[in-house]
Amino acid sequence: MVDGKKLKKQIIHIFKKHGLSNKHADIASSAIINAEIVGAHTHGLSRLKMYCDRIKKKVINSKPKIKIKKISQSISHIDANNSIGFVAADIGIKQAIINAKKTGIGLVGIKNSGHYGLSGYYAEQAVKKNLIVLCFTNAPPAVAPHGSRKKLFGTNPICFGSPTSSKTPFILDTSVSEINRGKIRVAAKTGKKIPAGVALDKFGKPTTDAKKALLGVQLPLGGFRGSGLAWMVDILSGVMTGANHGGKVKDPFDDFSGPQNVGHMFLTIKPNLFVGNFNEKIKQNIKRVKGLPKIKGVKEILYPGQNKQKRFKKNVNKKIYIPENIKNDLESLIAS
Prior knowledge:
Largest sheet: 7 strands, mixed
CATH superfamily of the largest domain: Malate/L-lactate/L-sulpholactate dehydrogenase, NADPH binding domain
Radius of gyration: 20 Å
CATH architecture of the largest domain: 2-Layer Sandwich
Strand content: 5-15%
Number of strands: 9
Number of helices: 11
Number of domains: 2
Shape: globular
Structural class: alpha+beta
């Protein structure tokens, strides 16, 4: 168990040793620590070595010259120059917030980025500024398009955030696959089975073997519906932005042949564009859903983001547990 503040300093130290500036190291470490606090361990410390390996191989640019092209008062296009994804996304969401505050709507497309962690982490930044937000990012091939046994789409998360009448924002952050790919990687390392119905092996047969699933394909959420959503995200964050798409995003763990060129898309909206009493209306909306009759065993109907906020409050002042294999990676990165 390690104190969160101490751990953040260690991660900053590691990133600075790998060439990141103080500011960029702080941005990246904050996102990683946040993932650990909210329980999204697949997007936290477990990926630290991967980021550092990619910096060493020069497929992440530790000293990027990020360019922001102003298309209009509302729209910006960012070339992240192969920066670590946390930095590209942080700049992108902040620009989208600025644009929306000026005109009511902010749209930012990003190319030449990398894996940026949790989409909800960036959505929360916009919601704290009293904005509605949509976040999209594409990812390396993992999901088979409906009807295919060859992977092409990433798990391509979709994220929506909205202010509420309480301090807990509405944050829906979900991949379009039946299961998070990070969970399959963890299961493969620990020798555990994955649920049935979430993956096929390389021969197109259903499997609960995590290692076979990584060599095969993940299945989209809801069959053709999830497949269509994955395609939609690939168009929005890949085709539109000028990033890689159509299965061309490189796997960050296994493919060091070049930068990932991940694409992101952020859309921020003032919630009172059409009605002046949004806060009262969203309060009524949530109250109506929460007041519905509950099935047996359910104490409360939760809206997306409530569980995550509870985990954050529970863990924010606690020490962070580090598994032995990750602890070894951390010690090695500090010593190297």
